Amino acid sequence: MSWYAALGALEQGLVYGIMAIGVYLTFRILDFPDLTVDGSLPLGASITALALTSGINPFIALLLAGFGGFLAGMVTAILNTKLKVLHLLASILTMIALYSINIRIMDGPNISLLATDTVFDPLINFGVPGYLASTMFFVAFAALIVVGVIWFLYTEIGLSLLATGDNPQMITAQGVNTHTIIILGVGLSNALVALAGSLIAQNQGAADVNMGVGTIIAGLASVIVGETVFGDKTIPRAIIAVLVGSVIYRMAIALALGLEMGRFSVNPSDLNLITALLVIIALTAPTIKKKLKKV
Contact at 8 Å (CB) between 26 and 220? Predict the structure, then answer.
């Protein structure tokens, strides 16, 4: 793997790691299977594309994208908590609706952002090479998100979020409205996913309505790989593990793509197969490890 390929995999691992942290909040902490992320990631990209092409500051566009993702998550959570729609079905309904909403926002299936300002421009103007500016920004932004999420989970609301996913009956008996906590948690999760979508669009120079396909699989793979390699005994360790797991996942894909074994070679079309194999390995590794210890 070349230097540029490794750098690209690191960038993707960091930015998709932000998305994976959002997936971790719903699937692991809230025990809420949420497929909204397949729609909220392109939602963040769509809002960013509209904002940038309208001359809005890219950092403000980033905030608008996060707010849009938060609203999308709230819709899913409200459908589940207030209207009693099954959480999985509620997230699928929101995801389907977001496909049409994203096309409405962009007034088409995609928008090019090659001639617009981005969040990387201040670093480039400071003299940082373009191929390093995005990496440096992603490192700093991902670190900020990790610290922010860890801090939030140790606040009173964050602890209520943890308790709601772990024991909703107990936290209800303490006077906490679990519906409000679920709405907040799912909203925050999708806000992080939309932020990732915004950064991906600015980095790739385009926003596309189909860019969220497979987001949930990549997020779950990152969570599982991170937990398998680093564990999740404490909140800080678990959050950091998700981010590092995302980097490992993207590095593994970069190594696998282009691999040749005789007449067989791995192509980009095999990405879903590679993902499935990585998740299977991550899921079965602890069991295999225990059996080997007993031998």
Answer: no
Residue with tokens 């067989």: 264
Q: Are 13 and 252 in contact (CB under 8 A)?
A: no
Is the CB of residue 133 less than 8 Å from the CB of residue 123? yes
Please say whether the beta carbons of 194 and 49 come within 8 A. Answer: no
φ/ψ (deg, to 5) at 232: -145, 40
Q: Where are the beta strands (DSSP E) in the chain?
A: 110-112, 206-208, 260-261, 264-265
Query: Which residues lie across from 280 on neighbouring strands?
Result: none
pLDDT digits (tens, 9 = 90+) for 28-59: 999 999 999 999 999 999 999 999 999 999 99
**With b meaning 16 or more CB within 10 Å and e meaning fewer, what string describes 20-34?**
bbbbbbbbbbbebeb
| CB-based contact 39:94 (threshold 8 Å) | yes
pLDDT digits (tens, 9 = 90+) for 136-179: 999 999 999 999 999 999 999 999 999 998 888 888 888 889 99
Binning pLDDT at 50, 70 and 90, where does residue 17 land?
very high
